[in-house]
Amino acid sequence: MAEPREDALAEELREAAGWLAVPPAPDLTAAVRARLVAVPTASPRRGRRWRALVAAVVVALLVAALPPARAAVAHAVTGILHFAGVRVEPGPVRLAPTPSPLPSVRSAGLDEARRRARFPVRVPTRLGVPDDVRLADPDPDGAPRVVSLLYRGGTVRIDEFDGRLDMAFLKGQLADDVRWVELGPDTGLWFPRPHAVEYLDRNGTPHEETARLAGPTLVWDSGTVTYRIEGLTYDDAVATATSLS
After folding, report:
1. Which residues contact 210 (CB under 8 A, 6 or more apart)?
2. In terms of Cα–Cα distance, which of 185, 146, 191 is closest to 165?
3. What angle do CA 52, 23, 176 make, to 5 degrees?
4. pLDDT tens series, the chain, 245 aa
5. C-alpha to C-alpha distance for 210 and 225, rounded to whole angstroms
């Protein structure tokens, strides 16, 4: 017959399944609940170890499956936030007096950009055809790492880059009002304040000469592509992001 404290521990673990709050997509609640219910009873001396084990399993599942959770844990541990092709570090970035364009940037037509890029180049129906399209940081075969769509005289910018590569943008001055944003099945980060931004090339080398002051920015990834929308209000940025096609 089980000891009273063993029964209490088993009951405590079962009850824990009820308060697990899992962020959207994928929903791990059912799987975690099943694991908790299946946990065998333990001796009183093993109670603390079981609690620690269950907590570690839950955190590991969330961090492995959910990018926002993984980014949040990494930020809490290192002070550096990695998310959707962006690395955010505390402290200012040294701004260039006259910022340079991204490496090897050139103008191109939208059809050429779509033909050369190794990822799908999407255009927001909310803004229509861009005023200018720029390709940057090409590989030896000429495939650009970054495709930029410019609107309204360049005051609104959409950067699209190959998310399978390493971090592409380094931001500084992380503020408390940076927040997560749900964009349908995708998740993004909203930077409401002007902030410093510089570019990391294919080798992970930061280009200080590109460091500039960016306006409010929405960053997210979808599949293997990372997107940045800069220069719009929050509502307009979200509406533009969800209209990409």
Report:
1. 96, 99, 100, 101, 102, 103, 198, 199
2. 146
3. 90
4. 555 555 555 555 455 444 444 444 445 455 545 554 555 555 555 656 655 555 544 444 444 444 554 444 444 444 566 677 777 777 778 899 999 999 999 999 999 999 999 999 999 999 999 999 999 999 999 999 999 999 999 999 999 998 766 678 887 656 667 888 999 888 888 999 888 889 988 778 888 899 998 999 999 988 889 999 999 999 999 999 999 99
5. 22
Note every long-range contact of 8-15, with CB atoms under 8 Å and residues 24 or more positions apart, other chains counting: 9/41, 9/42, 9/44, 9/47, 9/50, 10/39, 10/41, 13/39, 13/50, 13/51, 13/54
Question: Any idea where the domains of the chain sit in the sequence?
Answer: 4-65, 81-241
**Dist CA 58 CA 31 (whole Å):** 10
* Residue whose entry in the numeric block shows the structure tokens 């180049």: 121
- Is residue 81 a contact partner of residue 87, using CB atoms and an 8 Å limit? yes
CB 145 within 8 A of CB 138: yes
Residue with tokens 């009873």: 41
Nearest to 149 by CA among 181, 170, 121: 121
Distances (CA, A) of 49 to 9, 43, 55, 56, 176: 11, 10, 10, 10, 35
Tokens of residue 226, six digits: 């990372």
The residue written with tokens 């769509």 in the block is: 149
Could you tell me the two tokens for 71?
């980014």
pTM: 0.69
Structure tokens at 171: 């931001």
